[in-house]
Amino acid sequence: MYIYDHVVIEGDGHEFCQKNTGENSLKVFADSTLMFDRNTTFSYDGTGLEAADRKDRFVLGAATARLYLNGCTLDASAYGLDFTQGRIVIDDKVTVKGSSDTAIYDLCFYTAANVDMLAGAVLDVDGNISYGTKNT
Q1: 57 — phi, psi (to 5°)?
Q2: Which of 56, 67, 75, 111 is least surrounded, with the fewest CB atoms within 10 Å of its CB?
Q3: CB atoms within 10 A of CB 64
Q4: How far apart are CA 121 and CA 70, in angstroms?
Q5: How far from 30 is each of 1, 60, 86, 91, CA to CA, in Å?
């Protein structure tokens, strides 16, 4: 699935699930935004993929690609996610679920990815989150 321009997932209690079983990916392109609005959940699951591919099927495809989380839940507890570029915006209270098993399944924000915490935003973390430089 490719995201161009501004796409909003909304609806109280609704969940958008990305479960990858092969070459499928979700990519947000340059100057585009994927927004999860209040009381929605974005659930990412890399089950069924090779270990090296489990965390990179959701892609912010450019420095100007945005994932806007507004009072929602990001659940990457199955295998984690890697954010290697783009901008992640945290607005209102956002719950982030990462793996609690091992660092390889963490939710990772690398230094080329920008994280913006807006005024009054709260980041509620459940599990492991890491930040740093990606080893290649």
Answers
A1: -95, -5
A2: 111
A3: 15
A4: 9
A5: 15, 8, 9, 21
Tell me: the pLDDT tens digits for 70-85? Answer: 999 998 866 677 788 9
Q: Identify each DSSP E strand in 49-128 by its residue range.
A: 58-60, 66-70, 73-75, 81-83, 86-91, 93-97, 107-110, 113-117, 122-126
Amino acid letter at 14? H
Residue 43 in contact with residue 75, Cβ under 8 Å?
yes
Q: How open is the CA angle 41-97-123, to the nearest 5 degrees? A: 85
Distance CA 44, CA 42 (A): 7
Q: What angle do CA 48, 50, 53 make, to 5 degrees?
A: 105
